[in-house]
Fold HTH cro/C1-type domain-containing protein.
Amino acid sequence: MSIMKPINERLIELREHSQLNRQHFATRIGIDQGTYSRYELGQTKPSFDTLEKIAICFPKVSATWLLTGKGQMFTDAKPDVVDSPVMQSVEESEEMKELKKDRDAWRDMAMALIKSPSAAALLGKLKGNPDAAETIAEFFRSQMRASYAA
């Protein structure tokens, strides 16, 4: 007779195998992180409703394994991580960080160009010119091209 892991150990195993921290796992199944932590610590046991949420959020997890500890964790031995909303959110967050870096770099470059002597000279010449905006835009484009070429 094999010794089966208690539910708290199965939850830890599933979460770690899915490469999620407690907060992300709890968010994914729609419960409070503190409640989920108590499950993992063995202080309380998850309700049937919570186990059902886990089964729905992790469709490749064997319901038999989740409920009893018998059999294999995954029905096809692959966790459903790549398509998870949490992982998508993490990836989007990383993309946002990159976009913010790009935005900051563009802002810094624009400020440097604005403060440059050649920009000041150009702006002085364009005062009152109706085509000033287009001339300024072209000036900045040429400066950007020059900075990339360097």
In short: Residues 7-81 form a domain with the 434 Repressor (Amino-terminal Domain) fold (CATH 1.10.260.40). The helical segments are 7-17, 22-29, 33-40, 48-57, 63-68, 85-115, 117-126, 132-149. The first helix runs from residue 7 to 17. The mean pLDDT is 80.
